[in-house]
Amino acid sequence: MDKSAFIQMGCYVYSSRGHFSIGKNTIINRNSILDRRGGLYIGSNVNISSEVAIYTAGHDPQSPYFSDFLKPVVINDYVWIGTRAMVMPGVVIGKGAIIFPGAIVTRNVEQFDIVGGIPAKKLGQRNHELKYELTWRGVFT
Q1: pLDDT confidence of 15, banded at 50, 70, 90?
Q2: Which residue from 4, 38, 139, 140 puts its CA 20 to 30 A from 30's CA?
Q3: Which CATH architecture has domain 6-125?
């Protein structure tokens, strides 16, 4: 985790030996869930809003033995994930994409796409000229 990354209080990180990395100037807001069991890669200048859930593990619903699986999640630079969105195992979110609040992301999201809904579907495209650095640091967070 880069020293400029910021995780607010109340976040739950699954303990595991799975790979976990967070890039520069990334902000993870309060009460989010980060599942690192299958590997979680979060880029730079990513804004993960409050109560977002990112999962990298699950169970095969067709398995008579309730077998589990692990699939890494990759969140590239400049992604913005809205409040209470959920990202499911195996998803790759492309650079600059926006996930609307409450969306459930079950498939990869292309660079600069704006997605929303259940399941998440493309709603538009974001400006490609992103130059900001996230530097907000709340008090008592």
Answers
A1: confident
A2: 38
A3: 3 Solenoid (2.160)
Mean pLDDT to the nearest integer, 79-94: 98
The answer for residues whose C-beta is within 8 angstroms of residue 141's C-beta and 6 or more apart is 8, 9, 30
The domain limits of the chain are 6-125
Q: Which of 45, 52, 29 is nearest to 141 (CA)?
A: 29
Euclidean distance between CA atoms 117 and 15, whole angstroms: 30
59 is annotated as an active-site residue: yes
Catalytic residue, candidates 19, 59, 122, 137:
59
Hey, what amino acid is at 125? Q
Amino acid identity at 37: R
Closest by CA to 80, choosing from 101, 60, 66, is 101
As a whole number of angstroms, the distance between CA 68 and CA 74 comes to 20
> Nearest Cα to 39, choosing from 3, 75, 2?
75
| Whether this model's pTM surpasses 0.90 | yes
Question: What mean pLDDT is predicted for residues 20-44?
Answer: 96
Closest to 79 (Cα-Cα) out of 48, 35, 102: 48
138 has pLDDT over 70 = no
